[in-house]
Amino acid sequence: IKNEVDLQVLHLLGPKTEADLEKKPKVRRRLGTGVGGGEVGTETRSLMEQLRGEALKFHKPGENYKTEGYVVTPNTMALLKHHLTVTGGQVRTRFPPEPNGILHIGHAKAINFNFGYAKANGGVCFLRYDDTNPEKEEEKYFTAIREMVEWLGYQPYAVTHASDYFDQLYTWALELIRRGQAYVCHQKVEEIKGHNPPPSPWRDRPVEESLLLFEDMRKGKFGEGEATLRMKLVMEDGKMDPVAYRVKFTPHHRTGDKWCIYPTYDYTHCLCDSIEHITHSLCTKEFQARRSSYFWLCNALDVYCPVQWEYGRLNLLYTVVSKRKIIQLVETGAVRDWDDPRLFTLTALRRRGFPPEAINNFCARVGVTVAQATMEPHLLEACAAPRFLGSVLGPSPQKGQHSPPPSPQALEVLVPNFPADESRGFHKVPFQSTVYIEETDFREEVDKGYKRLAPGQPVGLRHAGYVIAIQNVIKVRGSGGHVIELEVTCTKSDVAEKPKAFIHWVSEPLVCEVRLYERLFLHKNPEDPSEVPGGFLSDLNPDSLRVVRSALVDSSVLSARPFDKFQFERLGYFSVDPDSEEGKMVFNRTVTLKEDPGKA
User: Fold this and answer.
1) Beta-sheet pairing, 412-416 with 314-316
2) Active-site residue 81, yes or no?
3) Among 98, 175, 439, 487, which one carries the catalytic annotation?
4) Is 98 an annotated catalytic residue?
5) Are 342 and 193 found together in one domain?
6) Are 246 and 228 in contact (CB under 8 A)?
7) Per the confidence metrics, is the pTM higher than 0.90?
8) Phi and psi torsions of 273, nearest 5°
9) Is there a catalytic annotation at residue 43?
10) 323, 325, 336, 524: the active-site residue
11) CATH of residue 137
12) Quick one: which of 88, 118, 428, 469 is 20 to 30 A from 284 by CA?
C-alpha cells in the first residue's frame, strides 16, 4: 500500500525540488494543541489560558443546537429558553466520579478540565457522585474524592449524588416504557455481551406488560440477572438496546433498602446532567460511543438535553491506574494501600510529597487537547520546597570531631531557606565540635577528579564559614577496618584560599527513617501482554522501595508536620510521611535532584 501511495503522490506532485529537501528549522510548539505520546513543548500556557481560549470551539450556553450531531426536536428551543432562565446563561460543568476507589492522575486531568473550564468562563462545577453501584461503594471513597478535589484547589458549586434523583429517574423510566421506548428483558448478561448479541425476543412485548414486570422488578419479585429494563436504540459502536435498570439486592449507603433496582450509567448520566442543567458534559473519549444514547434519551423523554464533549485520556507509563488492578496490588502486598507513594493515585502522590500545584501544572503541560496523552512519569516530577540543610542518608555517616569554633557566637549557623533567594528567610542550625557528613564525602585516597574531603585535601562546611582538614582517621579494629570517625582541624574560611569543594553536614542531628522510591514496574506498559507476557503482577520492581532506618537529619525540621516538604541539599525533595510520630520522623523521597540522562 505504501509503495502504491508513494507512486501516486509522485505522479500528482512530481519529484521533490531543492526547496522540498531543504532542512526546515524546528518550530517550538505550544502546549495544548495536540500533545500525545508524552512529547511536550517548552512554552506552556496556563490551564486557565487554554480553557478560556477559542481552540476548544465549545458551544455557548443555550446554543446547544449549534453543536454537530445535536438532535433538534419541536420542543428543543422552548427547553433551551427555560434552561437559560434557570442558569442565567452561566457555564455549568460537573465532575462525576464513581465512589468505588481512590482518584488517580488521570482523574486530575478530568478535575482540572471540568472545574477549570467552568472557572475560566465564569461558571460553576458540580461534584456529583455516580453512586449507582452500591456493592462497590464505601464511605472512605466519598470522603477521599472530595478531599482530593479540594486539595487540587477547587470548590464544588454543589455536592450531589445520582441517588438524589432516584425517584425522578424511576418516574422517567415508567414514562419511557409508556412511550414504547423501553421494555423488560429476560436475556442473561452473557447473552447480551459484545457488539453483536442476538436481538431480544421480548423487544416488542406490550407496554402494559413491561410496566407490570418493571413494577415486579422494583418489588423484588425477580432475582439478580433474571430481568432488566432495556432502551430501544442502537449506539455508535453497534451496541443494541443498552440496559437502563438491573436488579441488585444490595442496600445503598444513602437510600438503604428502599430500592432493589438501580439505574445504569447509560441511563443515569445524561438525565442527571439534564436535572442539574449542565451546559457542557465533559468526558473521556471512550464515552464517545455513548453520545447517541445521551442525546436519544433526553429527547425520548422530551427534557432539556445538554451537550457531551469528549477529550483525550491521560495515561502514564510504568504504572497501572485500574481500580481492580490496584486492589490486586494491595491484596497481594505489593503495595501498602491506595496511598502507597509508588502508586499514582492522588492520595499516593500527596503522601509522596507532590504539591497540588505540580499536578495542576502537569495537567496544563499535557494540554486540553482531545488527543490521548501517554506521559513519562518524570514529567510530573517538578515541585518546590524550602531548601533546608540536608539529611545524611548513608547507612554509615562519618562522624567528625573538630576543635570548637573560634568564637562562641559561631555555635549557631544561619542557613538560608532558599539559597538562591535569601529574602525568603533563614533558619538556625547548631554547629558543635561533632558533626556528621555523608560517607561518600570522604576518601582515604585521593582519586583524580575527586574534590571532597581526603587526607591533605581540606573542604569547606557549607554555610558555616569554616574549613576542615584531616588529622586522624579512626577505624573499626582489624585489618581493612571500616572508617567510623575522623579527627579534623577546623579553621575560619580564608577567601584567598578557597577550598576545592563545600560539603553538607549536620550537628546534633535527629535520627529519622527515609523511604526511597523507584518505579513500581520494570516496563513502560506493564499491562501490555507483548511487553509483559506474565501479567502486570510479574513485572514488579523488587527495588521499588528502599528504607534507610537510621538516617540523620538537621534538627531544624523537628517541628515539621505530615506532608511538609523540604529539599535536602544535593539529595532531592522529601516530604514528611503521616507515619511520623513523636521521637521518630519519617520522610518520603518525592524526587531526586540528579535524574537519569533519559529524563532530561
Assistant:
1) unpaired
2) no
3) 98
4) yes
5) no
6) yes
7) no
8) -60, -40
9) no
10) 323
11) 3.40.50.620
12) 88
